[in-house]
Design brief:
The complex is a heterodimer of chains A (354) and B (604).
Chain A (H helix, E strand, L loop, with lengths): L1 H30 L1 H34 L10 H34 L15 H30 L7 E8 L2 E6 L35 E4 L1 E5 L4 E7 L4 E5 L4 E5 L5 E5 L5 H8 L6 E5 L11 E7 L1 H10 L3 H6 L22 H7 L1
Parallel strand pairs in A: 1-5, 4-10
Antiparallel strand pairs in A: 1-2, 2-3, 5-8, 6-7, 6-9, 9-10
Helix pairs in contact in A: 1-2, 2-3, 3-4
Chain B lengths: L2 H16 L11 H6 L4 H31 L6 H7 L10 H37 L7 H20 L30 H30 L12 H32 L10 E2 L4 E2 L7 H35 L6 H15 L14 H13 L1 H15 L8 H23 L2 H7 L3 H31 L5 H27 L19 H31 L41 E3 L2 E3 L14
Helix pairs in contact in B: 3-5, 3-6, 3-17, 5-6, 5-7, 5-8, 5-9, 5-15, 6-7, 7-8, 8-9, 8-10, 9-10, 9-13, 9-15, 10-12, 12-13, 13-15, 13-16, 15-16, 16-17
The chains are: A alpha+beta (354), B mainly alpha (604).
Chain lengths: 354, 604
């Protein structure tokens, strides 16, 4: 009912606008084309300056409204670099933005038609053009320089003492694997994957290195201050490991493992205190369109102290042990509320159950 | 006294003089005049009107999925009445949502801003502005439209498939787009998408080759390449980009078709399908290969969209500032630089795919290089306005709006082209805001600018000015209200292509903002419908054009009769003696290109 009502109002508004528009056209003809044109021109010229002023106020106001909701302190060292780069870029582009937009609308207002004015015949000026080729080029060199410096720092080799964790995307959940005590990942082969037999990654049990590998659904435990190197895989389509608080992101491509590394700065507990938010958790989001449940593909990162990590790892049963015990795997302790998307469930039912 | 007569009394006389004046050298039936026409002006109108229909549909799709984003909890029973199982309980299913998002992108990028924009203005302006009777091959030109039409039919019919249209995003990355088992839209919908796009590529090639050969070979006497208006240069580079890059997309799509139906493994490797609990046999393929092939078109594609808009804006801005465009050669040079760089930056869409970081750094450098020619263009436009005598015709307003949008969207490109920042901003709303402003809204502004400026030439009537002003100001303000705050969502890392953020701790803070954006989007969409009404109403009822050169412009199309017949000029094709931008020279408001240079004239 209200929809129809709304559409009626819209239609009415349109009819009124149309009638006014038509009437204006007739009035314009009766007034004489020249007078009509001059009047319209003045109105539009005035609106140019109104738009500029309101726009600038809007930009400021929008920033006041939302600056508290973005970024926050990055939770990784790489994140700090990225934030610095962001502010450098924002400074340079911001200055250009204000100068050019103000000039644009100011010129439009200032040089609007007037009978007295004649346009200035000014086809080119090589010196000016050279100036605004060179200045942007210099500004960009600065940006490229900083950008690449940080880029190579971030994408360079992980430190030798980095902990290795494998994360694998599937529709629509994350699987995390730890190498266990031997610090070596066991071999795997995708033809071996079987959800039914609790071998979600297709580990090869013939390889003894796989026997102590720990496979967890949906939650990744990391140690604060310790560099971590993620080895990223996908089981079906392309996903993307998005770690918004750490400012990191890397695609998960089936058949082509990718890597990224970073160092978490704060434990989850520290972040909860810092943000005064007891429900805070680092989230893993999927950032590459992966199908109907893309928006539900949520994982969690728990950043803990070294002692807590050792404790946690000791309690986790290796995948191999679970399988050999012959019973279906209970989901790991923390994952029930995290990765509730099972293949049989549709995403919408998950959304509802929440 | 009826309204018609008030408006049209002076018009009739002049109009009658010109109509049918050109030699009626061949008979025209309804079919050859309006359907299978080989007249570039009619083909232009066919492209334009098809583009308008697509734009309405594509815009409507965005309104529909903005409903979901703005009101994720609400249900709209009317949706179920219309869409049936796709909107059970008055709420779009995720499949329907993703199908809408995918087709919104496909339709607007290819069918509106490529087919609609280039098709319209290349067809209309090339022969009229270079002084030719028609395209080099009117027949291929006609085929170009009808392949476009066929492509449209195929894409449109995919909406009525049981499994729905393609829904893996407009970039159709495999394996998602290759396997029907993992995505409903990758069943028949994807085949329709590929076939539709293949037909579209054929249309684009037929058109593009024609545009290039016409511009290079059929310019009138005296029309050297340094005298053609910037519109023609822009269209030429656009056509070259299309001819060189669309075939690459087609090859990528053919391999995708093989992967889908012939059991090949170009893009597929190590895949386990959870729904059927089976591992696929494919090994050794590379999903990233497709992205290289796609973006080798995909990046030039955004310049295919924006270059014609730049050309139109440059021309309109000079005419209505009553000043020459500042730095004509620099404008041509920067168009050329952009066209070259367009082919060297595609991998900046792939910084986080596991690309070699060194390779990434090369693409950072080349990508940020594009900012230099873009900056030159912006400063040249600003200088064109400086000390002009500006008439705010609707076309001019949209030209100014274009520059504003191009600045805003171009600057955020500097963020995204920098791989360091792209790690954080990739696939967030920052990207959505960036490309909607710089490619979507800007290109639309360029297109509106062109339509308002050349409508009198196309239909011999004016669009209604009052509606045009309302259209411009609401669209400009609305576009900023929609896309400016989206940058903040992007900086917060909110991923795109999510239909519900309520489960996410980090992303759920923007519901109110999303609701606001959805509301503005609906208003802006309604105003576009008003423009469409204005367009069709004015074809029949608009104020008639009474002088062949209503804007006081220099270019050749305004020397043709008000409603030119097939062949454009009744007598000889006019000869050209000067460039297109002698405005305000030696105290004269404008000097048409057809006027010989007099010995007293000052040099520039």
């Amino acid at each position: 009912m209200s929809t129809i009502f709304l559409l009626l109002i819209l239609l009415l508004g349109f009819l009124i606008t149309f009638q006014i528009a038509k009437a204006n056209e007739y009035v314009g003809i009766l007034k004489g084309e020249k007078k009509n044109f001059e009047q319209n021109n003045r109105i539009n010229g005035f609106l140019m300056i109104v738009f500029l002023v309101l726009g600038l106020i809007g930009v400021y106001w929008c920033n006041e409204l939302f600056k508290g909701k973005i970024l926050g302190e990055a939770a990784s060292e790489h994140g700090d670099k990225i934030d610095t780069m962001l502010y450098i870029t924002l400074g340079i582009t911001g200055a250009v933005f204000f100068v050019t937009q103000i000039l644009l609308f100011w010129f439009a207002y200032r040089y609007q038609y007037s009978e007295k004015r004649t346009a200035f015949y000014y086809p080119h000026n090589n010196k000016l053009e050279l100036i605004w080729t060179v200045i942007p080029a210099i500004a960009l060199t600065v940006l490229v320089g900083f950008g690449l410096y940080y880029w190579f720092r971030i994408t360079g080799d992980a430190p030798k003492d980095a902990m290795e964790v494998e994360i694998t995307g599937r529709q629509f959940a994350w699987l995390v694997r730890y190498p266990g005590k031997d610090n070596t990942f066991g071999k795997k082969y995708f033809q071996n994957i079987s959800d039914k037999d609790d071998n979600q990654l297709g580990l090869l049990w013939d390889d003894p290195a796989s026997h102590d590998d720990i496979v967890v659904n949906g939650t990744m435990y990391l140690v604060v201050g310790k560099p971590v190197k993620l080895i990223i895989n996908s089981r079906d389509v392309i996903h993307d490991v998005g770690l918004v608080h750490f400012r990191m992101k890397m695609d998960a491509v089936p058949g082509t493992p990718t890597t990224m590394w970073f160092t978490p700065k704060f434990t989850t507990e520290e972040m909860r205190k810092k943000l005064n938010d007891p429900e805070f958790d680092y989230e893993i989001s999927c950032n590459q369109m992966c199908g109907k449940g893309h928006y539900t593909m949520r994982g969690i990162v728990k950043v803990v102290t070294p002692d807590e990590f050792i404790l946690w790892r000791a309690k986790e049963k290796p995948n191999y042990a679970r399988v050999m015990a012959g019973k279906p795997a209970p989901p790991s302790t923390d994952t029930t509320k995290v990765s509730s998307v099972k293949p049989s469930e549709t995403p919408s039912s998950v959304a509802k159950s929440k | 006294m009826s309204n018609e007569t008030t408006i049209h009394v002076p018009a009739e006389v002049v109009h009658e003089l010109h109509v049918e004046e050109h030699g009626a050298h061949h008979k025209e039936s309804f079919i050859t005049k309006y359907v299978f026409s080989q007249d570039h002006k009619m083909i232009c109108k066919q492209f334009l009107i098809t583009g308008i229909i697509w734009a309405i549909l594509g815009g409507l799709m965005s309104v529909l999925f903005r409903l979901q984003l703005g009101y994720p909890e609400a249900s709209f029973p009317i949706l179920e009445d219309i869409f049936g199982k796709w909107a059970k309980g008055g709420k779009f299913t995720p499949e329907a949502y993703y199908a809408l998002v995918t087709m919104h992108g496909t339709v607007l990028v290819f069918f509106v801003l490529t087919g609609g924009l280039s098709g319209t203005f290349a067809n209309f302006l090339i022969p009229l502005q270079i002084g030719a009777r028609d395209m080099a091959s009117p027949f291929l030109n006609m085929l170009s439209y009808w392949f476009f039409w066929l492509a449209s039919v195929v894409i449109l019919s995919s909406f009525f498939l049981e499994t729905g249209p393609a829904s893996g995003g407009w970039t159709v990355y495999p394996p998602l787009s290759a396997l029907g088992q993992v995505n409903e839209g990758s069943k028949a919908g994807m085949d329709f998408w590929i076939i539709g796009m293949a037909l579209f590529v054929v249309s684009s090639l037929l058109g593009g080759l024609n545009y290039i050969s016409t511009i290079l070979n059929m310019r009138t006497k005296g029309m050297s390449m340094t005298r053609v208006p910037l519109t023609i240069w822009a269209i030429l580079f656009t056509a070259v980009l299309g001819v060189l890059s669309f075939p690459v997309l087609l090859s990528g799509l053919i391999l995708l078709l093989f992967d889908r139906h012939a059991g090949t493994s170009f893009y597929l490797s190590d895949i386990f399908v959870a729904s059927t609990q089976t591992a696929l046999p494919n090994e050794g393929g590379s999903a990233i290969l497709f992205q290289h092939l796609f973006w080798f078109l995909g990046h030039p594609e955004v310049y295919i969209i924006i270059l014609p808009a730049m050309g139109l804006v440059s021309e309109v801005m000079a005419v209505n500032s009553r000043k020459p465009i500042f730095g004509y050669m620099a404008m041509v040079g920067s168009l050329f630089a952009i066209a070259i760089l367009a082919f060297l930056v595609w991998a900046h869409h792939m910084f986080v795919t596991g690309l070699n970081p060194f390779l990434g750094s090369v693409f950072v450098l080349l990508t940020l290089l594009i900012a230099v020619p873009s900056a030159i263009k912006v400063f040249n436009w600003l200088t064109t306005l400086w000390r002009g005598n500006i008439r705010f015709t609707p076309a001019m307003l949209f030209a100014i709006g274009f520059v504003s949008m191009f600045i805003s969207g171009g600057l955020t490109g500097i963020f995204l082209g920098n791989s360091t920042l792209d790690i954080h901003l990739h696939d967030t709303y920052f990207v959505v805001a960036h490309f909607h402003i710089v490619m979507g809204v800007s290109a639309f502004f360029g297109m509106f600018c062109g339509i308002y400026h050349w409508y009198p030439k196309m239909y011999g009537r004016y669009l209604n000015n009052t509606m045009a002003y309302i259209h411009f100001w609401i669209t400009l303000a609305g576009a900023y209200l929609i896309f400016w705050p989206l940058h903040y969502e992007g900086l917060a890392g909110v991923p795109r292509r999510y239909l519900d953020y309520s489960n996410w701790h980090a992303f759920k803070n923007f519901l109110e903002l999303n609701r606001f954006i959805s509301t503005v989007a609906m208003i802006v969409f309604a105003v576009q419908l008003m423009f469409v009404f204005n367009f069709f109403y004015s074809i029949f009822k608009g104020r008639k054009v009474v002088t062949p050169n209503p804007w006081g412009a220099n270019t050749l199309e305004w020397t043709a009769p008000i409603r030119p017949g097939h062949g454009n000029w009744p007598g000889e094709i006019p000869e050209v003696y000067r460039w297109a931008y002698d405005y305000g020279k030696d105290g004269r408001s404008f000097i048409p290109q057809t006027e010989p240079v007099s010995p007293q004239e000052s040099k520039h």
